[in-house]
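B., you asked whether I could sanity-check this one before it goes into the benchmark set. Here's the sequence:
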Amino acid sequence: MLYLVATPIGNLSDISQRALEVLTQAPIIAAEDTRSARRLLSAFNIPNDGKQILVYEDHSEQRMAPRLIEELRAGKDVAVVSEGGTPLVSDTGFRLVRAAIEAGIQVVPIPGACAAIAALTGSGLPVHGFIYRGFLPKKPGARRRILESLKDREETLIFYESPQRVPKIMPELAEIFGPARRACLAREITKLHETFLRMTLQELAVQVEQTPPRGECTLLIEGVTRERLEDAEE
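And here's what the prediction gave me:
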């Protein structure tokens, strides 16, 4: 079986019993970062003697996916882990999952931590519908096209962003979505310095300019309300 194992994004207590069982019995672990994977096994006293812990990330995916499929066909279980969180969510793995399905191999997700969902539930923004867009493009033109296509959506928008880029893109977000649109910047989720900044885009732009964020960031923007959309159409 091909297991997609969610791992903690900060707090080790978020690991599930099922994830530990899979990581214990799987002979092959395909890891975005092998050092992080070894530290995780060590933290839970999971022996790695006899296990293959292989690098599986963006640069090695094309080469490693066929090899992992052969191992699966040979009857070996493979557990995929990202550096933290749920595999495939802004991480490598889609090519392998698609190949496994085409080969008739069972794909088994092991649920657990996901920064996007944790941030959404703690944001104070509507959760009945949301759009996850991951990391925005670095090129201004491509980024603006995506943002323009989303500005009239009613769902809450979720983005991952590096702390270095957050202050740079906030004025652009306030311009496109409007300065009064409600937003939330969730930082270091599940970690010691977990922070939720809940304010308008304009207020958030000022805040991060004065105090640049540190650590992993998830940015959420409220969808356009029906009233606001009707006002814009008049």
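One thing to flag: DSSP finds nine helices and ten strands in the chain. Otherwise nothing jumped out at me.
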